[in-house]
Amino acid sequence: MDLELGVAGLERRTAESLRSLRNRTTPENVAARLMKLGIRALTLLDDEYPALLKQVADPPPVLFVRGQLKNEDEQSVALVGTRRATSYGQAVAQRLARDLAAAGVTVVSGLAKGVDTQAHRAAVDAGGRTMAVLGNGLDQVYPPENAALARQIVERDAGALVSEFAPGVPPDAVNFPRRNRIISGLSMATVIVEAGARSGALITADFALEQGREVMVVPGNINSPMSFGSNELLKQGATPVTSAQAVNAWLRAE
Asked: What's the CA gap between 201 and 182, in Å, rounded?
């Protein structure tokens, strides 16, 4: 190996560091670390890999999971929106998530501040299921203030934390658009609860449309900057939704 690295042009200290890393990083070591962290790695060949996510154009070849994925999670809806949710957006996210969870629908979101947090918490409190998609490795929670909520999802058997990023990968701005495509990919429909003009929720809506999934939008206050993006989607033809019953009616029709 040293000869091969030398031929590749690496100087001696770099080659030694690379050799040391390779010696430490074996499949057995990785498996042991994942087990210690309570994380499972699913590939596209695994039966437990979410069927809806397999259908998108670029599913993660490896999906890391903490918690339990169940067959009923295929009946799933994403609830996403701005991190700077107004009291209106928070209340709507809570109501929709609570009612959807009570009806047996798995609520998918990104564990971010604002709308995402309210959606996950309401689903857990309703005794339902939720999937939180993270933009970092599952050995950490971002934002840190949602660590207790993440533990509840796992420990109450209320769903799962999922990520395509291996343990040790920190949260980074470039990770979140990739995270958003998984949120929509895990969901039959994506509901935008409240979104400003540059909200990441609009990226999730774009991914949902590319994936051939339904996009629904809660109408927002026309005087609120936090509803500008939401109302623009409605003007572009997104399906307006004002209750979980309307979402459930669409799911039953599919």
From this structure: 12
Domains belonging to the chain, first-starting first, are 2-37 (no CATH), 51-253 (3.40.50.450)
Q: Which amino acid is at 195?
A: A
Residue with tokens 């004002």: 242
> Is-contact 58 181, C-beta < 8 A?
yes
Average pLDDT of the residues in 99-109: 98
CB atoms within 10 A of CB 1: 10
How does pLDDT run across 46-89, given as a tens digit for each residue? 999 999 999 999 999 999 999 999 999 999 999 999 999 999 99
Residue 217: both structure tokens together: 């939008």
Residue 140 amino acid letter:
Q
Distance CA 8, CA 35 (A): 35
- Going through the chain in order, the beta strands assigned E by DSSP cover 40-43, 62-67, 76-81, 106-109, 130-133, 159-163, 189-194, 214-217, 239-240
Give the confidence band of 31 by pLDDT, cuts at 50, 70, 90: confident
150-158, long-range: CB within 8 Å, 24+ apart, which pairs?
A: 150/111, 152/124, 153/67, 153/120, 153/124, 154/38, 154/66, 154/67, 156/124, 157/67, 157/68, 158/67, 158/123, 158/124, 158/127, 158/128, 158/129, 158/130
Q: Which of 185, 199, 172 is nearest to 115 (CA)?
A: 199
Q: What is the DSSP letter of 136?
A: S
Q: Output the pTM of the full model.
A: 0.89
Question: For residue 31, what are the CA distances in angstroms to 21, 35, 37, 107, 162?
Answer: 16, 6, 10, 29, 17
